[in-house]
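Sequence in, structure out.
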Amino acid sequence: MSDYLVIVESPAKAKTIERYLGKKYKVKASMGHIRDLPKSQMGVDVENDFEPRYITIRGKGPVLKELKTAAKKAKKIFLAADPDREGEAIAWHLAHSLNVDIHSDCRVVFNEITKDAIKESFKHPRAIDLDVVDAQQARRILDRLVGYNISPLLWKKVKKGLSAGRVQSVAVRLIIDREKEILAYVPEEYWTIKGSFITNDSKEFEGSFYGVDGKKTDLSSEDDVKNILGKLKGNAFEVKSVTKKERKRNPALPFITSSLQQEAARKLNFRAKKTMMLAQQLYEGIELGKEGTVGLITYMRTDSTRISDTAKNEASEYIMKNYGKDFLSAEKKKDTKNAKTQDAHEAIRPTSTIKDPQSIKQFLSRDQFRLYKLIWERFVASQMASAILDTVSIDLHQQNIIFRSTGSTVKFQGFMKVYVEGNDDQQEEKENLLPPLEKGDNVFSKDVDPKQHFTQPPPRYTEARLVRTLEELGIGRPSTYAPTLDTIQKRGYVSLDNKRFVPTELGEIVLQLILEFFPEIIDVEFTANLETNLDNVEEGKVNWVNIIDGFYHGFSKRLEKAELEMQEIEIKDEPAGEDCELCDHEMVFKMGRYGKFMACSNFPDCRNTKPIVKDIGVPCPKCEKGNIVERKSKKKRIFFGCDQYPSCDFLSWDKPIARKCPKCESLLVEKKLKKGNQVQCVECDYKEEQQA
């Protein structure tokens, strides 16, 4: 018989922790929540202070029975669910189900699954924090009141399978508002003039038109450009000034949940859902050969950048040993914390800096390794010295017209030796070495190239941009971003086009109805204030019933009005422009799990379906009977195949083009590269100049 029973959430975590604690401890997994509000009904008594009615989750009966049996044999029970609101609520539900005194020292929390962290946490058990439980309960009840009241209304008035929620509705609104901005955007013309210059000793460099008479000047038309070029006499320019500066570049702070999701999207092309799944695996533990199962990162749902002194010291020793004293940060870094930060635990970091990615690569899957490497590098870089860059700005004058050339070189790499943060909007900073020039020197223009441009509308949201925006607005919490983005796609409110969110007609209809009848649900400020109120509940400043009562008073009145006034909307299927080959009825576009597809309008009598394909106007090079069409895989990756499939199995990930290789007459394809597209032959080495 074990003296102590420890209950965690997952079997992987249970296995690791049991090994650390020894024979006196039996560790079991609850497999997440064991109790919740019922799925078949509201489960909230709005007439009795919003009292929730919890039931055992369907399918969790055997798990609960096993836990009860183990609990009867144990002298003491420790509840060790995750260190956040959800984990505190799981512990509270377990305590009620197993008759554990919630005021006893039954709750154990740890930020990382390592031997030292686990043993230390069991030295300091505490009571369940009821304020944190209330905050989770308030969120759950709020979401239930919104979802279980608005969703049936949408089923009745629009179509079945729809849903509405506080965070997801705001996310859809942001995407739709951005699309409206793009459609309403009026491009403005502007011009640039780039010059190619050469020094007396034949060294070339580039510069761009800056201004006239010492002032920066914008070029808004071709006439402005002609005016500037008309003033230039010959090709000689005088170096009027050379400005040299030393600039520091500081490392990024270690990851929090939202920044991890954003950077994994930028650098690894991971969806938010995938990032969190992999992070969970790294947190719970990976089998490292003889060392056994080891948790590799700290808890991955956090909005704090705080780092423990132990972790800082270990990182410092690693940096000293592997990079030298100069690379060690001499500054005491301040952990950023704002009013929206819960600061429940540390930033996301490796549990041990010594376990560098390469040393454990053999034990990780490809994607686990890539994510761990990102987390490890970001953390180590955050503890390193700033990079030092030498910047040079050279002003070239002729007839009071100024061309400016700027360059930078890395004088000291510092943290950049390990990691440089990605950016949605700009390219990574690159070195640009300029020739040594002094004031009064002459240089000569080889070429002056004016170009017309047009301003661009704001970009559509990628997952990374949307997560960043939700975080900045204070909408949702770290644990909500990934499931929110997943839900709005599954409901068909938005779709992904080239990794960017595009609203659907259904999304616009649902948003318009919510905007008309429940404006507070999609009001950004209102939703952010609710999050603040939930934080106040967690801190014991506000009673959770008061928060919900304040919301429900106005919401219930709007609900009554919507029941009476909301009109039924029929969403007609869009014609696909062709007839069903089985029954001759019209084919229509439908939305499915993997996006749009064609289906027969005579459903359910005819169940014919077809994928949507786009003819690219290129004959199949293999069978010479069919045409090449653009298709999408289940993972939404575009590929090209013959429309005679399966009789012809031609397939290409690169887009074929409608002409043959001039060298060997084989197929030419357009290959996507980082800096543009390049036409090349599939058989020989023929390539055409890369197109931007």
